[in-house]
From TrEMBL:
The keyword Transmembrane does not apply. It comes from the Bacteria. SMART domains: AAA. This is ABC transporter ATP-binding protein. The keyword Heme does not apply. Residues 10-243 form the ABC transporter domain.
Length: 247
């Protein structure tokens, strides 16, 4: 599948995952293009987390195909997929609370950067980009929630992935922190050409920052399109958004 001459960085075809008799995700098709921020949304229990775990290799699909950077990655391990350049964060943070911010970000350079000096340089550059330089010596677990969320993104982005997958990075953030994090995501995309997959409940933020949105409902794709198209989609309004988001 191509869009405007762009070959997808990631593509799912008929992706399905069963847990015993329960079908958590069924026949999911979507793709992520170079240089875009794609939102994956849906009500609780829609299959977002399962889909996220499937594309990052943490779950093996029961059926269907996963293609990452043009390679068939169906059933490949999370480490193999991350080393290819698809790096994810986790919903409850990926940081080591007792370590400094600097050492946390250094963790993210282990597989992507050779040499201690180069790794320190990359960590400093990443911290600068995310506004974390003042906190480099601080113990990560003592910092405000919004800063900890940025540290988690910093760990993932330190490897300079081609595709950064973020699992609810805005949870618990205030409006200022949300705006700050969205600006960071745009910077990552615009300055480093890194595409972003954003699984998120904050609809206002998703509508603001995403180029395209995929809506899951009962484990299937209900709709996909631009924020304007999703906002106007009657099936999405009925299933999820509610009329207050549609205006």
């Amino acid at each position: 599948m191509q869009h405007e001459g762009k070959e997808a960085l990631l593509r799912t075809e008929g992706l399905t995952r069963r847990f015993g008799g329960l079908v958590a995700v069924s026949d999911v098709d979507f793709d992520i293009l170079p240089g875009e921020i794609l939102g994956l949304i849906g009500p609780n229990g829609a299959g977002k987390s399962t889909t996220f775990n499937l594309i990052s290799g943490f779950y093996k699909p029961s059926a269907g195909k996963l293609t990452v950077f043009g390679e068939n990655c169906t059933g490949k391990s999370p480490l193999t997929i991350s080393r290819m350049g698809l790096v994810r964060t986790f919903q409850h943070g990926s940081l080591m609370p007792s370590m400094s911010v600097r050492d946390n970000i250094l963790l993210g350079t282990i597989h992507g950067v050779r040499g201690a000096g180069k790794r320190r340089e990359r960590a400093a550059e990443t911290a600068e980009m995310l506004g974390l330089t003042p906190y480099l010596s601080e113990e990560a677990g003592t910092l405000p929630h919004g800063i900890q969320r940025l540290v988690s993104i910093g760990i993932a982005f330190a490897a300079r992935p081609r595709l950064l997958c973020l699992d609810e990075p805005l949870t618990g953030l205030n409006q200022t922190e949300v705006a700050n994090t969205l600006a960071v995501l745009e910077k990552i995309r615009d300055e480093h050409g890194c595409s972003v997959l954003l699984v998120e409940h904050n609809m206002k933020a998703v509508m603001k920052v995403c180029d395209r949105i995929v809506v899951l409902h009962h484990g299937q794709v209900l709709a996909s399109g631009t924020p304007a198209e999703i906002r106007a989609d009657k099936s999405v309004i009925e299933a999820y958004l509610g009329h207050r988001h549609a205006n």
